[in-house]
Amino acid sequence: MPILVITGTGTEVGKTVTTAAVAAAAVAAGRSVAVLKAAQTGVRPDERGDADEVARLAGAVTAGELARYPEPLAPGTAARRAGRAPVHPRDIAEAAAKLATEHDLVLVEGAGGLLVRFDPAGGTLADAAELLGAPVLVVASAGLGTLNTTELTARELRRRGVELTGVVIGSWPAEPDLASRCNVADLTDVSDAPLLGAVPEGAGALAPTDFRTTAPSWLAPRLDGTWDAEAFRVRAAAGR
Hints:
Layout: E1 3-8, H1 15-28, E2 33-37, E3 40-41, H2 50-58, E4 61-65, E5 68-69, H3 75-82, H4 89-100, E6 105-113, H5 125-132, E7 136-140, H6 146-160, E8 164-172, H7 178-191, E9 195-200, H8 208-214, H9 229-237
Parallel strand pairs: 1-6, 1-7, 2-4, 2-6, 3-5, 7-8, 8-9
């Protein structure tokens, strides 16, 4: 798995912190890691972007972005309004493929959900994953509404013939409600893919050293972690 594309079921689902956790676990396992943000929106030139945040939390990773636009909009819209060149799926694929020649693992983080548009032709992160022949990890929210968006994302990946590696809950609440607890089992059903982790709510606020030490415990062995999906399901069903 030299390249892994990471998408969310929408915005604010914990995609960047999950990307950092995957990077940190891989680094802890002795792998060289690069993180590529396909397009950063809503950030000024002097502000830290998502790739910078991943590097801050995960440590020794190569971090970069292909473009950034000032307004917090879909990349295609933000590029148009800023009068700047858009990022095309082929740009993403070529940059990721180059990084893969120099690193054991390349994490490509999208913007928002799978079908957010990057260019006037309607190019998406899904198109980039197709060009790369790379698997996709889906970051989902825990609570009410997540089953619909997760299933739609999974269906679109399968329609395109793109491998769905699994699902990670991007922000698991300290006190999960009934919907969140039930969704732990249901997410695997609707996605027809394994649950590969659950990142605790507020994990991004940890000190970087604590984040790096703890990150493997949030992720399954397939993502270089130690997290036990079945044990987590039992605890969630019991409300713990």
